[in-house]
Design goal:
Length: 205
């Protein structure tokens, strides 16, 4: 998993409540098990007309936000079904951080497992960040995970909370597999001892 340390980039404003996972990545794109290629379908029904043409009013279709690295959203972001494709699509588009007043629990957990940092902030802070993000290409926000700080375009800084274990996983780029591999030597030692103590379990090897 890609490490997350400091992120500095354009923030796109999405002032919507209850953005569900089907809005983030519609069900017809869930057949793949690859984590790549989904970014072009992020917010598919909001970004494109039925004939495939872009909707110019949607924020990610506007020139200033086409390469947004941060998304500022409303409350209950990521509600709906538990599809892990939602953070895959966000990550593949190039967004590494979503800042909102609240998140659906499963989506929130899935973000951490896929290298996306979800940050919960009070409404008054979200309103300020949403205003900052409305500045277009000047909407540069910096997120420092080590310091747990968000710095706005005007230099103002706010602190955010994060679980220490999840913070470590993002800083070190550790997903579930990576965490397991940290115990590789202990696992190998256990298997060696078990093979010596119970050789019949390995007779078919």
């Amino acid at each position: 998993m890609q490490k997350f340390t400091t992120l500095r980039g354009v923030a796109a404003p999405l002032p919507m409540r209850n953005v569900d996972t089907d809005m983030i990545i519609p069900k017809q794109f869930l057949k793949t098990i690859k984590r790549t290629g989904l970014g072009k379908h992020l917010f598919e029904e909001m970004r494109y007309e039925v004939d495939g043409k872009e909707k110019p009013d949607f924020v990610l279709n506007q020139p200033a936000y086409r390469k947004a690295a941060i998304l500022v959203a409303g409350e209950n972001f990521g509600c709906g079904s538990s599809r892990e494709h939602a953070p895959w699509a966000i990550m593949d588009f190039g967004i590494r951080c979503v800042i909102a007043t609240s998140f659906a629990d499963i989506f929130y957990n899935n973000c951490f497992k896929n290298g996306v940092l979800p940050i919960k902030m009070p409404k008054e802070i979200i309103d300020k960040l949403m205003d900052d993000a409305s500045r277009g290409s000047n909407a540069i926000i910096e997120v420092d995970l080590e310091k747990q700080e968000i710095k706005g375009p005007d230099g103002g800084t706010v602190h955010f909370d994060i679980d220490p274990f999840r913070k470590r996983c993002l800083l070190e780029g550790l997903d579930d597999i990576g965490l397991t591999m940290e115990k590789k030597y202990e696992i190998d030692d256990f298997e060696k001892k078990q093979k010596e103590a119970q050789p019949w379990l390995h007779a078919a090897e």
